[in-house]
Fold:
Amino acid sequence: MDSIDFQTTFDTDEYIFNEGDPGDCAYIIDSGMVEVALDKDGRKLVVATLTKGDILGEMAIIDRLPRSASARAIVPTEVTPIPLDYVSQKIEQSDPTVRMFLRLAMARYRDMNVRLEQVFESLSLGQGEASDDPFAASTMELKNVVSQFAEMQKRIDSAVTKSAPTEAGSLFGEETLEITKLLVTEEKMLKAAMTKKEFRLHYQPIVDLASNRIVGCEALVRWNHPSGEQLLPSRFINQVEDSGLIIDLGYWIAEEACSFQSRLFNDFQHDLFVAINLSGKQFEDQFLIPSLADIMDRTGARREQIKFEITESLLIDNPELATQSLHQLKETGAKLAIDDFGTGYSSFSYLHRFPFDTLKIDRVFVSAMSRSEKSNRIVKSLVNLSRDLGMDVVAEGIETEQEAELMRNFKAALGQGFYFSRPVNETEFVKLLRQPKIELAG
Ligand code: C2E
Ligand code: CA
Ligand code: CA
Structure:
């Protein structure tokens, strides 16, 4: 894991970076003032004085060249660092055209700077081309470069403002800056959370509706935040995915969940299945499937009792990759479930193309069943369809006896929801298993 500690406060006259340094970080100024200057043979050319809300050091981050100027705090200054890794990842994830334009804009920006420098040099050395006024040519050139520069700034400004509305006239609005700062800080905390082992798995029972016996569970990740709060995935999973951290976290989750399956079987003689959520991003990792197979082996999990849950978005966004990966995953001997079925662009027609063993009916249909005849019919046809395709069905989000009863009428085999149990930690889960039947909450 890379270093996450960049300096955030600078005293008067302290350098944030020097010309020629490699760029490992850009900065947003939170308070104070920074002078950006070029050193020309011992003479200083101040190119900008930046204050709160301004960004500096971004050029070296985008084009990966050394710092083209130095930055010095001229009063005590506080900054939010935006690490190279963070920006690189965001750029790599962006549209290739945007990527190209950004790099091109930076190259031109540097080029302008070089030309400005040359003009500055010739002006100060009195090397203007021969004419009545020795400075005339250089002055013209300077005006040209400056006006081209201003024009380019204007274009970049308007392009950025159009794509993300900000305060009138400003390249980076307050809101954008605040969001960036928040994201950078959160991502640092997420990375630290991995190293500090702040993630935990909870397990939610999945029960056989006919007998109310636990037959398996779903592993759900939680973050024991340093603030003392336990955070649910909705608070962090998107960022974990966007930052690429889902690859490492995903392996940790798989390892934990597979070890749990193995412990349940070997230590407690309960042969239950454990369902593991896989995000679409994890499928971009070419080692995903062999690594999962390896994890199942190393942990001693029973492969046929490991069930990977994926959502429809994977099938829709990349059907080719999905078909190939899901077949390979199936060949490992593990089971596959399609999650949140009915919420995406569900198409019954493509279901048979993928080797799913289980269909999980999304909570929205289950909870709407008692209120809406339409939802009732949707659930009924999903149950029938699954049976026709030889799949098990899990009704998700069962919260009441009435919902459980309605599902039993449809002969849906399995159910999951707060009515049976909330997701609980391993110790609590093992306690639930000691009961012959799950004690009902409602
Ligand atoms: P999901 O895969 O659909 O997981 C089921 C979610 O529904 C869980 O929320 C669970 O606590 C909640 N739930 C279960 N029964 C009920 C109920 O009766 N009523 C209500 N209102 N909710 C119920 P959770 O744990 O907050 O997870 C949310 C989502 O985060 C998951 O949805 C899944 O998409 C994602 N997620 C959770 N753990 C992981 C993980 O380990 N890896 C990945 N990639 N995603 C995960
Ligand atoms: Ca799931
Ligand atoms: Ca689900």
User: Anything to note?
Assistant: The longest helix spans residues 96-125. The CA atoms of residues 11 and 76 lie 4 Å apart. Confidence is low (pLDDT under 50) at residues 165-170.
